[in-house]
Amino acid sequence: MLIVEDDYRIAAFIQRALAQAGYQVKLAADGNAALAAAGSEPPDVVVLDVMLPGLDGLEVARQLRAGGGTPILMLTARDAVEDRVEGLDAGADDYLVKPFALEELLARLRALLRRRDVNAAERRRGVLAFSDVVLDQDTHEVTRGGRRLELRNMEYELLAFFLRHPGRVLSRMEIFEEVWGFDFLGDSNVIEVTLGHLRQKLEANGEPRLVYTVRSVGYVLREETAA
């Protein structure tokens, strides 16, 4: 596990806590050091501070995401919605606002690791398809009408979850638990952000919508029906 944090006190606190929980931990104090550490030995999870000297956490997340599927938990001292959205857009799988409770940090890390293990097993289960969308779990390739879609980690996992349950309305709670691996937190808009990006890519060539919002309930994957 790689902890990227320029505040030595916070980094040391997290390192001690994770070591006591049985994790092997490496530390990096800036963005360039983080990329070097991740490149030499890919970590299971990256805990990444946003405000770093030199290369900031958002750019580090973008480069890590471009290089692979390592789960990223982003730490931020800013709790505005736009700040969280920015982190998710950069490629983070989850975020945690400072100051945070140690128990919540550990729970989120367990969830990321659990989901990673489940996803690794499910990636070798053949093809999921609905309408003109095809998702190959062996190659991780997604197409719509033959057009290849470049999806980020959580966009891919969200689409795969919908494809496993076509026609069924999925609640926000269910999506959080099954896709992100933690319970609904109340003020998080992570589903809306991820779904917004997924819809843009699915509909980039003017294709009809497939994932619909069911107001006050959740979301459903279905074919467009005539008015």
Describe the protein's architecture and organization.
The structure is a single chain. The chain is an alpha/beta fold. The chain folds into 2 domains: 119 residues, Rossmann fold; 98 residues, Arc Repressor Mutant, subunit A. Helices cover 43% and strands 19% of the residues. The chain has 8 helices and 12 strands. The strands form 3 sheets. Strands 2-1-3-4-5 form a 5-stranded parallel sheet, sandwiched between helices. A hairpin with a 2-residue loop joins strand 8 and strand 9.
Assigned CATH superfamily of the largest domain: Response regulator
Overall strand count: 12
Mean pLDDT: 85
Specify the CATH architecture of the largest domain: 3-Layer(aba) Sandwich
Helix share, percent: 40-55%
* CATH topology assignment of the largest domain: Rossmann fold
User: Can you count the helices?
Assistant: 8
Strand order in space, largest sheet: 2-1-3-4-5
Strand content: 15-25%
Characterize the overall form.
Answer: elongated
Give the terminus-to-terminus CA distance: 51 Å
CATH class placement of the largest domain: Alpha Beta
What is the helix/strand order? EHEHEHEHEHEEEEHEHHEE
Radius of gyration: 18 Å
Number of domains: 2
Low-confidence spans: 183-187
Major β-sheet profile: 5 strands, parallel
Which secondary-structure class do the elements indicate? alpha/beta
